[in-house]
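Bug #2210: token dump truncated for DUF1376 domain-containing protein?
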Amino acid sequence: MSIPEPMTPNDCDLRGLPFMQLDVVRLIDSDLFALSTGEEFKAAVALWCKSWLQVPAASLPDDDRVLAHLSAAGSRWKKVKSLALRGWIKCADGRLYHPTVAEKALHAWKARTAQRERAAKRWQKKDEDTGNATASENDMPRHSDGTSHGNALERERERESKKKETLTSFVPPAEPSASEVEPAETVAETLPARPSPPDARTALFQLGLKAVRGLTGKSEAQSRSLIGKWLKACGDDASILNRVILDAADLRPAEPVAWIEAAVGQHSGRSPRDAERTRNKAAWLEGEMLEGF
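Reproduced locally. Full output below:
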């Protein structure tokens, strides 16, 4: 009998995506639910969840010592192993895969890669608008929280809607055409004076401050200190930092401070080596699993 190929791509990495779909009908109707004890069922579900955060996702190492740890069964692993591993299949890469978990993982991986492609296009467009002809997808921070409710399309529409609402607070209203302008005397008589839109620096320390506090959970004083440091790195250009914070509010990365610093580094003229070092730090901080057992 031939050994099957791995059920998910070798770069399928869902760390940072805490949501895993659970098909309750299939679970309740399964042999595992009918045959397992509470301890066996607990170990089985623990392995499903742990495999979600392995690389490739939906896989486990074929090692009893590691499986005893991941299942939380410890010294009782041999007693629960048979039913805890029900449905798992050893594939050509030597790892164990669960077809149902792999099905859900592939769906989530497709959503994550699509989101990264959309984010890359937005960054590329911004670089083209500013005349940066050497920008590429690899120059942008790539780690984000991902899809928290399992429906990538719906979450994307929600993020775009929120971003548009935020942008309206930063962008002043369009000027009317010459044909639409009424004499100043008429306007003064019929319309009350309205306040001018805030400049970029005012918007940064009002709306931008709120966004940073929401992303990082830090106090107002700590958030102001971060904004001051980032603003200095941007050459005191508040409009650049406003755009970076808006992107962070849109993508909601797992490590927002490291993400923003990486993005600021691209605009501040730091060397590619420094920017890459910051991005690598953000990628390391996002990992939530101990690997290499």
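Output looks complete on our side. The two ends are 29 Å apart (CA to CA). Marking as cannot-reproduce; reopen if the truncation happens again.
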